[in-house]
Specification:
It is a single chain. It is built from 15 helices and 30 strands. With about 725 residues, the chain is an alpha+beta fold. The chain has four domains: about 25-190, no CATH class; about 200-265 and about 505-525 and about 535-580, no CATH class; about 285-500, no CATH class; about 595-725, no CATH class. The protein has a nine-stranded antiparallel sheet with strand order 15-16-17-18-19-27-26-25-22. It has an eight-stranded antiparallel sheet with strand order 2-3-4-5-9-8-7-6, with helices on one face. Strands 1, 12, 13, 14, 29 and 30 form a six-stranded mixed sheet that branches. Strand 26 (about 470-480) and strand 27 form a beta hairpin. Helix 10 crosses helix 15 (about 710-725) and helix 12 (about 650-660) packs across helix 14 (about 690-695). The chain is globular and about 85 Å long.
């Protein structure tokens, strides 16, 4: 039986048991014993009583529905929903057969403003009390991790608690509680918890330093490029910056045995079937973002001497006998496109050509059901072949219900040699700057012999290289048919304008690993290893074929995020190439007793932040800071291009707020607004309406000087008033 790693968790979860589970494992068996309706009803009554002993169901929720699942990855579970008669509000709960809740969701659409009344710190105790009430067996095994703001439209804070056993975190088990920040009511809970798994003791025989060294022997820090874009004038420039990152996203060392693990999800004894899908390469689709031209425009373009004709473009493909081109490809269509590139004034013209096989209706069960297809892209100025793809004839004979006796005549090495000869001719300059990717390529499956695939083709990828470092954003690709020796796929994507950072002063991979391993996230934890098994016994019912075995282990593991390290400084880098700075809660010492203290703390809880460690309430707010805060709160604005020393006034701020409320036209109406308390000195009469509307909506109050700078304290109050504004 072939061992195969698959990408997703089996939807029916997994396997009846031919394997013994280790002592510290939990087993979920998917085979279900036959039960009567009376037994299910008795179980439901018992579970409902357990739930209602923990949670009070609102009296108005008079409508009740339920669902019972007996064969899932979670074992057996119940889902209960209570609703009001109008079906506007509801409470849904999911739990296991013992009444252990793992999902709670209260939908309460009573009229409210979704404006924070409580600080995050004030509702943490509410979340903890709720856990203690509904998950009593869990509450004593938790460590608080963080409180997060879920966005203005959610109207809640979420508190995360991870499992703690023997003084060691077990982050695979956690509880998250959401609390409405206006009402203080718990509106959601999700719990991931293993109630019946054995926890190993906390004794370790491997030190953290030894674990780092062991992983360092297995992990290779790879120097590679990442992309970022910058706007320079009217052009968008792509810059390739360098990072070191580990070649494996997960590695762990058993803290007791020193064994090295490369996964915490094992899929074992999975059969490969004839029906396994083969992913189509979509590289050709990435080549162009094009706008089609009309026939009249094409006719004019073809008159230009520097463009080849449609007929000539087709001949570029048909006359190249190295391409896999079926004899039945007898229908041809071609369109001329202009490849979009915002940085180029002169756009490249490309012929996009399709070849079809039109031999009448297709009978997919007939002996010769194959219908050929091919597509190509040709540069209309140079006649250069940009890309090509054709499908490959199937070797399955539906009449015989067997595979045809097609044989693979060419080895992978021979296929690679043929392709590289082709690439040197077609894209020689690019091929010289490329290296064969070490990522495996399998090609297409020709047939199966005893459920084992026989590959009929070979895929190759060549990554662009700059000064010895791979740049995976640019590639040349090609595929060769091992039966005919013909090329059935070819193409590239390449940016000649990219600006590369030089690798000349970079540190060694060994130095990079030391920096990487010292970052926050290399930790000692309990983690769950999931083993997914399938029985190969043919006489076993499908519901009894699967088993999920959960094994608890104590490990040191790499959970370092982000994983990119600067090859020059050893600092962690974010995806924009800038130094990573962890967002932490700030305890300001300069706002205690300040008249705007509560507003400041509330907007901070809503993730409105400044770079400084203190709030600096008297400091003026810049336009960029103001816009970023609006965006954070769901008001999408943008910063105008201003000189750095240009003042951003209170009036500028109010104009942006009124615009966000779609009241700009109203604000510009003349001679209808009260102006008491507004300093009209040096103020344009057309701007009076903005200030008057803001005062009328309660966004600002008291005496208001429009042309003064807006301080951070005033800014905090204005933002909170904006959320309260009834518009």
């Amino acid at each position: 039986m072939k061992k195969k790693i698959i990408s997703g968790l089996l939807s029916t979860a997994v396997l009846a048991s031919a394997f013994a589970a280790p002592a510290n494992a939990a087993v979920i068996s998917m085979g279900s014993d036959a039960v009567t309706n009376e037994e299910v009803a008795a179980d439901m009554e018992s579970v409902l009583l357990e739930i209602k002993g923990k949670i009070e169901i609102p009296a108005e929720f008079t409508e009740f529905t339920y669902d019972y699942q007996s064969n899932t990855a979670y074992g057996q579970y119940w889902s209960f929903v209570w609703r009001d008669k109008d079906f506007k509000n509801s409470l849904s709960i999911k739990c296991d057969k013992d009444g252990n809740i793992f999902s709670y969701n209260l939908r309460n659409n009573k009229e409210k403003n979704s404006v924070p009344k409580f600080l995050k710190e004030e509702l943490k105790a509410t979340a903890e009390a709720f856990i203690e009430k509904v998950l009593p067996a869990v509450s004593g095994h938790l460590q608080f991790q963080e409180a997060s703001f879920n966005g203005v439209y959610s109207g809640s804070y979420t508190y995360q608690f991870d499992r703690m056993e023997n003084g060691i975190l077990m982050p695979d088990n956690s509880v998250r509680v959401s609390v409405d920040y206006e009402t203080g009511e718990v509106v959601g809970l999700s719990a991931s918890w293993e109630y019946h798994i054995s926890i190993p003791d906390s004794e370790v025989k491997i030190s953290k330093e030894e674990a780092q060294e062991k992983i360092g022997e297995k992990v290779e820090m790879k120097l590679t490029y990442r992309n970022k874009t910058e706007k320079v004038g009217d052009k968008t420039i792509t810059k390739a910056y360098l990072v070191y990152q580990p070649d494996k996203s997960y590695m762990a060392v058993d803290a007791k045995t020193g064994e090295i693990y490369e996964t915490k999800n094992e899929y074992l004894s999975m059969e490969m079937t004839k029906n396994e899908s083969i992913a189509e390469d979509s590289a050709n689709n990435k080549l162009m973002s094009a706008a089609g031209l009309s026939e009249q425009e094409v006719a004019k373009i073809e008159e230009l001497k520097n463009l080849i004709s449609k007929k000539e473009a087709i001949k570029v493909v048909e006359n190249d006998n190295r391409l896999l081109f079926d004899e039945h490809l007898n229908a041809v269509s071609a369109n001329l496109y202009q490849k979009y590139d915002e940085n180029k004034e002169a756009k490249d013209y490309l012929w996009r050509i399709t070849f079809n096989d039109v031999r009448g209706d297709v009978d997919y069960q007939a002996k010769d059901s194959f219908r050929a297809y091919a597509s190509a892209t040709v540069n209309a100025e140079t006649g250069e072949l940009i890309s090509y793809r054709s499908n490959v004839r199937s070797s399955y004979d539906y009449d015989k219900e067997d595979w045809n006796a097609l044989e693979v005549k060419y080895t992978k090495a021979e296929a690679q040699e043929m392709l590289e000869s082709f690439l040197k001719e077609k894209v020689g300059d690019k091929f010289k700057k490329s290296v064969l990717s070490d990522e495996p390529g399998f090609g297409y499956i020709l047939k199966y012999i005893e459920n084992e695939p026989v590959y009929g083709g070979y895929d190759f990828r060549y990554n662009r290289v700059n000064e010895g470092v791979e740049y995976t954003y640019n590639q040349i690709y090609g595929s060769v048919d091992g039966v005919t020796g013909k090329i059935y796929s070819f193409g590239y994507y390449w940016d000649d304008e990219v600006i590369f950072e030089s690798p000349k002063a970079t540190m060694s991979p060994e130095e990079a690993y030391k920096h990487y391993a010292d970052k926050e996230g290399f930790e000692l934890v309990y983690e769950i290893n999931q083993k997914h098994y399938i029985s190969d016994a043919e006489d076993v019912k499908i519901q009894d074929k699967y088993r999920l075995e959960k094994e608890m282990r104590l490990v040191y593991r790499t959970n370092i995020n982000p994983s990119a390290i600067s090859p020059f400084s050893g600092k962690q880098l974010s995806y924009d190439g800038e130094e990573y700075k962890k967002v932490t809660e700030k305890n300001f010492t300069d706002i205690s007793g300040h008249w705007a203290e509560r507003a400041i703390r509330l907007i901070t809880d809503l993730n409105v932040r400044f770079e400084e460690e203190e709030f600096l309430p008297k400091k003026a707010v810049s336009e960029k800071e103001f816009v970023e805060a609006l965006n954070q709160l769901g008001y999408y604005s943008r910063s105008e291009e201003k000189e750095e020393d240009t003042e951003f006034t209170k009036l500028d701020a109010l104009k942006k707020l009124i615009d966000q409320l779609n009241l700009t036209k109203v604000a510009k109406l003349q001679n209808i607004y009260k102006t008491e308390g507004i300093d009209l000195t040096n103020m344009n009469p057309e701007d009076v309406g903005y200030v008057a509307l803001a005062r009328g909506l309660g966004i600002v109050s008291g005496e208001f000087v429009p042309n003064k700078e807006l301080t951070r304290a005033e800014f905090a109050v204005i933002l909170m008033n904006l959320l309260h504004a009834d518009v």
